[in-house]
Please model this.
Amino acid sequence: MLKLDKNNKTVAYQIPLTTTSGKIRIKEREFPNQYGIPVATRSNPFILKHYVEWQIGYDVVTNEINDKKSTTLTNKQFIGANGKTKSLFELSEIIYYFFDWGIITKQQLKEVSDFIKSTDNNLLVDVNPDFPIKRTDFISKELFGINFQKSDVSYPLLIHKFGRFEVITEIIIKEKQRAIGVQPMLYLCFPVTELKTQTPLLGRVARPKELADFVFNRSNSGILLEILRIFGILSKNHKHDILQILNEILKLK
Model:
């Protein structure tokens, strides 16, 4: 999934353009605070309203690595908050190479680590009282002769913009599907015009199983560190994992 260019010190991540489900999707919306709608790119030409929604990860359980969850750093491991052995992956993988190449410095990583350590566990996103999931009182609603009790549920959505870049993170807080509690989910979003392809995307449909490159380089490397900081404040488990990842990367130098 990663294309490493040590000479030019860039890392390109391959983005699938035709998937409508999964971790990476092409979606459409007018404004960043609107809910995006998935786009069938094989039949709908790319336009300026289209963007990439990437649920970027930072680790992979080592014994679950396969073709769909591959990493170039299998030997860079840590113990996650869930007790499982994990390897660096995606976000942490890219940061590892940028640290190795001197784009990201030891001081920068230590500053991120110190920031995360300083955060109050009682104010992390998943337990912060300012970000509750809200439910209205039930009211009666009849539909086709069937009586229902209706309540509206709203989920907190946090958006962070990265300076001058047309790149944002979205954090949505929802109930855990397989456990008690809530789970903040982070998405990296950016316009399709940020993608590198052999032929321009705008005005054409995607080719079967087409991939495009999203390139990380020196100029946008700060985005990676900021995402790491944000991950570190989502929950106690995220905080633990990010600090372990930073320790593992810092072992390089």
The helical segments are 91-100, 106-118, 221-231, 236-250. The chain has a mean pLDDT of 93. Residues 236-250 form the longest helix (15 residues).
